[in-house]
C-alpha cells in the first residue's frame, strides 16, 4: 500500500515538474495579433506578457480610435494566448498524472 502511495506521490511530483517546465517554455511561445488593417500590432507570450506593440502613425491623431484598436487587438491576443496556455498546461498535467480511481476529470 505504501509503495503505491509513494509511487503516486512520485508521479504527482513529476507532473508538477512538467507543468513548471511548460510554464517556463510558454514564456518563449509568441502570439502575434493585429488589427484588420494592420495599423495596430501586438506580440504576447503564451503566458500573456506583452513583448511588443506597434502603432502606426495614422492612429496617433485619433485618441478614441487608438483606444478602440488597443482594446480589440489586445483582447484577441490575450484570448489566443490563454487558449495556448490552458491547452499546454492541461496536457502537461494530464501526461504526468497517476491513474487514481475517480480522478478521470483530467481526461
From TrEMBL:
Presence of the UniProt keyword DNA-binding in the record: yes
Coiled coil: 5-32
Key words, A-Z: Coiled coil, Cytoplasm, DNA-binding
Pfam families: YbaB_DNA_bd
Main location: cytoplasm
Subcellular location: Cytoplasm, Nucleoid
UniProt-listed SUPFAM superfamilies: YbaB-like
Alphabetized GO MF terms: DNA binding
Function as written in the Swiss-Prot or TrEMBL entry: Binds to DNA and alters its conformation. May be involved in regulation of gene expression, nucleoid organization and DNA protection.
Subunit (UniProt): Homodimer.
NCBIfam families: DNA_YbaB_EbfC
Family: Belongs to the YbaB/EbfC family.
Name of the protein in its database record: Nucleoid-associated protein J2X31_001423
Species per Swiss-Prot/TrEMBL record: Flavobacterium arsenatis
Origin organism lineage: Bacteria, Pseudomonadati, Bacteroidota, Flavobacteriia, Flavobacteriales
